[in-house]
Amino acid sequence: MTADLSAAPGAFTTAADTAPSVVQSVDWLAIAPPTLTALAALLVLVADLFLPVHRKKLLGYGTLTALAAALALLIPLRAGDRATFCVTTGTQPCSYTADHFTLVIQALVLGGAFLTALLSLDDTRKLPAGEYGFLLLASAAGAALLPASRDLATLVVALEVASLPAFALVGIVRGDRRSSEAALKFFLSSVVATAVTLLGVSFVYAATGTLHLTEIAARLDDVPPALDTLAKTGVVLTLVGFAFKVAAAPFHFWVPDTYVGAPLPIAAYLSVVGKTVGFSGLILVTVVAFPSYADVWGPAVAVLAALTMTVGNVAALRQRADRDRSAVRLLAWSSVAQAGYLLVPIAAAAYSSDEQIGSTVAYALMYAVVNLGAFAVAALVSRTHPGNRVDDYRGLYATRPLAALALGFFLLCLAGLPPGIIGLFAKVTVFSAAVDAGLGWLAVVMAVNVVIALYYYLQWTAILFRSPESPENAETGGGAPASGTPRRFPVPAPLTTAIALTAVVGILLSGAPQLVLRFAAVNLF
Fold first, then answer.
1. Complete DSSP assignment for 237-293
2. Beta carbons within 10 angstroms of residue 492's beta carbon
3. Digit-coded pLDDT (tens) for 34-61
4. Using one digit for the tens of pLDDT, what is the confidence trace for 387-396?
């Protein structure tokens, strides 16, 4: 122990007195949503060992309750600007921040997980309730942690916690070769993405000497010339890793087969929560950590956006030539195209300000509601037509008029047509972000792609209201025999609730789109 002899007369301080304290108080309220979700996952796993088979269904309701409680814990955090796990010296950067951006994304991912759990109750393929609930809650915990992460280590850990259980969820149907193949493709692509991301993170750390996002931003302003190439390489590799996660072209190849092979609720989960996780991570590393290299990632993200929306829409358009075209595969290609639209405001933020990010968040909120609703109706149709072809939706209005109207509304929202006003407003907001940033060429590409997408969205919508095929002209492919008489079948209450909930929220948002735009307005600085 050394003494400080330069202190004032009569004072005697030691190095132990002046050293920064390593003891920190944890803001438990700030970390409550992901923490509660993780604890609930462990509780469901343990309870599965003791509950008899006929009571396993309680685990599904326990999963729903835990996710609802996690959502409720966001209410006392609505003021935002809470942080914990902070460094006690210098600028005191924090590893966990519960700001407005964090709360919006956490509400989206926890709400998406809640609707996924709701779709999974009474699933026709009899998913194992205990394993399923544990994996879903564990993945949701990682997804809720990621938007609050403010250092690269926590960011990567949260990304993997969200992704690893998802691999098992995709392949959870035992004995299903297609499900196992989908899980393998998803796993291999994600492993490659993680390896590339970690390599990029290591390069950034080597160039800056820190992992905190705000500190990286400050140090990248003054990188020595000898390390400039290393830093730029790290930025590019990190972006490539996240491009895999958000299914941006040309890193999208795993999406169609994974969505088709996975259980329908998990396909819905990946299309909404999985995509949100990737985009929130991409926003954090570009806008918060790498603003100094906007000239590097800005053009790259703009090109990715144009390529992704074009590949997704053209591939979806080609599905019409396939007689056995899968509705889920069509939704998968649609999700790739929607990812392209979501990338536009991120690219625009490189040329203007981070306020453009609010457009991505608003679009993600709209997309989450209507896409989950579309998958909920697909789950309804799959109860009588396991093949889930687009042609299986012919005459749905005759058998299930409310479900047909709901799906038609969801498809029009995705297309950006009235009465799906929220979809129209979201697309206009994204389009305006590109124009305001001076990316006129990207706005033109987006406009062309919106027109292309109208064809397959409107074609699917028209099929819902056509007359059912007559028995002599109908084909029986991958589902129940066609019949001229509309067939009624019981629909589980959870599935009905999921369709009704998404439809009501979509209609309310279409009536007051300014609410979602205000809610999604974020400022990361």
1. HHHHHHHHHTT-TTS-TTHHHHHHHS-HHHHHHIIIIIHHHHHHHHHIIIIII-GGG
2. 17
3. 999 999 999 999 999 888 888 888 898 9
4. 888 888 888 8
Confidence of residue 272 (pLDDT cuts 50, 70, 90): very high
Q: Which helix (H) or strand (E) holds 151?
A: none
Tell me which amino acid residue 130 is. Answer: G
Q: What is the pLDDT of residue 299?
A: 92
CA pair distance 142, 237, nearest whole angstrom: 22
Tokens representing 77? Answer: 């955090």
Q: Which residue has the tokens 């003054």?
A: 222
10 Å CB burial of residue 102 (0-12, 13-18, 19+) is buried
> What is the share, in percent, of the chain residues with pLDDT greater than 70?
87
**Interaxial angle between packed helices 327-349 and 294-318, expressed in degrees from 0 to 180 and rounded to the nearest 10:** 160
Q: What pLDDT score was predicted for residue 302?
A: 94
SS3 149: strand
For every residue of 76-130, DSSP letters joined together read GGTT--EEEEE-SSTT--EEEEE-HHHHHHHHHHHHHHHHHHHHHTT-TT---HH
Q: Which two tokens stand for residue 383?
A: 């109860």
d(CA 211, CA 155): 10
pLDDT of 436 higher than 80: yes
Burial class (CB within 10 angstroms; exposed 0-12, middle 13-18, buried 19+) of 107: buried
Tokens of 243: 């491009």
What is the structure's pLDDT at 324? 59
Q: Which residues contact 18 (CB under 8 A, 6 or more apart)?
A: 4
**Number of Cβ atoms within 10 Å of the Cβ of 199:** 16
Q: How far apart are CA 275 and CA 199, in angstroms?
A: 22
CB contact at 8 A, 279 and 108? no
Q: What is the CA radius of gyration of the chain?
A: 24
CA 408 to chain centre: 23
78 Cβ neighbours under 8 A, 6+ residues apart: 103
Amino acid (1-letter code) at residue 439: L
Does residue 162 have a pLDDT over 90?
A: yes
Q: Quickly state the pLDDT bin for 461 (edges 50, 70, 90).
A: very high
User: Quick check: bond before 165 cis, omega within 30?
Assistant: no
Residue 376 neighbours by CB distance under 10 Å: 30
Please state, as a whole number, how many other Cβ atoms lie within 10 Å of the Cβ of residue 398.
Answer: 16
* Total Cβ atoms within 10 A of residue 69: 15
Cis peptide before 401 (omega within 30 of 0): no
Instruction: Give the pTM.
Output: 0.88
CA atoms within 13 A on the CB side of 161: 23
